[in-house]
Design brief:
By secondary structure, this protein is of the alpha+beta class. It has 20 helices and twelve strands.
Length: 512
């Protein structure tokens, strides 16, 4: 009796209660759990006797996170009704003694059953949807898998639409997302390793790779960077992306994010590694290259000739998005002699009466377009696109009529904005939009020489940039002719026989 009082006094200290071991004494163990999470109004404690034996038991779960139907049919019914009917002849039960092996192997009709030794371990499981089962005389507490995930249906990703290809996208449920990867084919080498990230609020994270394709050194590097994540909470995969990238000062993202399972699986088949976090539909792919940001899964679903031409058009659109306004500023302000005479006269005629230099004119229109684009994203979906289009037309026409900007400037900005929409990866599009303003200032100070100087600075940065040890502008550096078959162009599938050497370290020849 005195020992029980001492044990109970220990539970009054909240600092050490979460580190306490369970004792097997029902009243003390239940009090330990109550002291830790009993103040939460959504945590349910249900005490009962097991099947007329007089053995005290209790289940603890979170209302809304746990599946009540599963608890009622496969836990409560098994322990209260079926337990006495089927097992009352067992001599150990008649004597009032019960073991956890007997409960796990002969009573509970539920697939996921584990044990907890510490209060802290038990609480973290309860708060993520599992159900705890305390039984008098059983020292360890049983944790029953009853999580009821709230997830939406698999829909086509709104950020990466395709004309031809699968219409499935990832959801916020990690188990659904890993299942989508498994559904791509019978591949026993697809490995999925689980981690927990977040110090105060823990979340599940998995890395996926194909054992006979991925470089073991790359897999180990990804795991090491995941283990080093030290932050209170990881609400979205963007946090992981920022914490594991090589150079956080670079404007280029060194981790690709996507909602498409087909894009992730294709990357895995190239020897890359995917990172998926619970609670977000965006998966991460490492390592990546600049060319991946300009490629679309649709490039491989269509025949090679249209894909070849569309990919070239996409690269050309990216160059226009990056250098369009800066080239206009440099030619108009410094190098009028390089413009054909008739075109130069036409441009000068449209600029007559405009009070600002070309750089200010371009900044006014570019900033207005960026504000309209951002505002269109934040507005409700039914009116957002219409507002962006109408706003752009109204502001552009009003600016020309007021003599603030020239009509040719409106054309240049409109062409630049449309070209930026051709970049399939949203994060890459943001990078080009940021660097566009830097190129404009270089052009305003040095003219065409400034544009060339900016391009050289950009190339020098890209040459040094790496993603998990892989050069960011591969296959330009290091140069390998066979990799150019799937770079700026897309050759027929029969001609792409080799994997990229920078990524795939094992087998260089594709199967088949």
């Amino acid at each position: 009796m005195k020992q029980q009082e001492n044990e109970k006094n220990k539970t009054l200290d909240p600092a050490r209660s979460s580190l306490e071991h369970f004792t097997g004494i029902f009243a003390l163990d239940l009090e330990l759990v109550r002291n830790e999470i009993g103040h939460n109004s959504d945590v349910r404690f249900r005490e009962f006797y097991m099947g007329g034996t007089g053995i005290s038991a209790a289940i603890i779960f979170v209302d809304g996170l746990s599946d009540k139907e599963l608890i009622d049919k496969h836990i409560m019914k098994s322990l209260m009704a079926s337990f006495f009917e089927k097992h009352n002849q067992d001599p150990s039960i008649v004597q009032g003694v019960i073991t956890k092996e007997f409960i796990k192997n002969q009573v509970l009709t539920i697939s996921e059953v584990t044990e907890a030794h510490l209060v802290h371990d038990l609480v973290s499981k309860i708060l993520t949807g599992s159900t705890a089962l305390l039984i008098d005389g059983v020292q360890n507490v049983l944790i029953l898998g009853t999580t009821k995930g709230k997830s939406r249906n698999n829909e086509e990703p709104s950020s990466e639409p395709l004309v031809r290809g699968p219409r499935l996208g990832f959801t916020e449920s990690l188990s659904d997302n890993t299942a989508l990867l498994r559904q791509h084919g019978d591949n026993s080498n697809l490995s999925i390793i689980k981690f927990q990230v977040g110090e105060r609020s823990k979340k599940e994270l998995v890395i996926a790779y194909i054992k006979d394709m991925a470089d073991p050194a790359l897999v180990e590097e990804v795991q090491e960077r995941i283990r080093k994540i030290n932050i209170d909470d990881v609400p979205e995969s963007g946090y992981v992306e920022q914490l594991i990238e090589d150079n956080y000062l670079s404007p280029f993202t060194q981790v690709q994010n996507t909602e498409r399972p087909d894009r992730v699986y294709s990357a895995l088949m190239e020897g890359r590694v995917a990172i998926l976090l619970d609670g977000t539909p965006f998966a991460l792919i490492v390592p990546v290259s600049l060319s991946m940001m300009l490629h679309s899964p649709e490039d491989y679903y269509d025949r090679w000739l249209p894909s070849f031409l569309i990919r070239l058009l996409r690269y050309f659109a990216a160059l226009i998005s990056l250098f369009g306004p800066s080239l206009y500023i440099s030619f108009v302000s410094f190098h009028q002699g390089l413009i054909p005479t008739k075109l130069a006269l036409s441009i000068m005629g449209t600029r007559e009466g405009v009070p600002f230099p070309a750089i200010i004119e371009a900044l006014i229109m570019e900033v207005a377009i960026e504000i309209l684009r951002e505002g269109g994203l934040r507005l409700p979906k039914p009116i957002g696109p219409a507002m962006g289009i109408v706003g752009g037309l109204v502001i552009g026409e009003a600016a020309v009529q007021a003599g603030i900007v020239s009509p040719i400037m409106v054309i240049v900005v409109a062409l630049t904005a449309i070209s930026s929409f051709a970049v399939p990866q949203y994060s890459a599009g943001i990078t080009f939009r940021m660097l566009r303003f830097v190129a404009m200032f270089f052009a305003a100070v040095y003219g065409l020489y400034g544009v060339v100087l900016f391009f050289l600075f950009l190339c020098s940065h890209l040459v040094r940039l790496k993603s998990f040890g892989v050069p960011f502008i591969t296959p330009v550096v290091p140069y390998r002719l066979s990799d150019w078959k799937d770079f700026m162009i897309r050759m027929p599938l029969l001609k792409m026989r080799r994997f990229r050497k920078a990524i795939h370290k094992k087998d260089s020849i594709r199967k088949g």
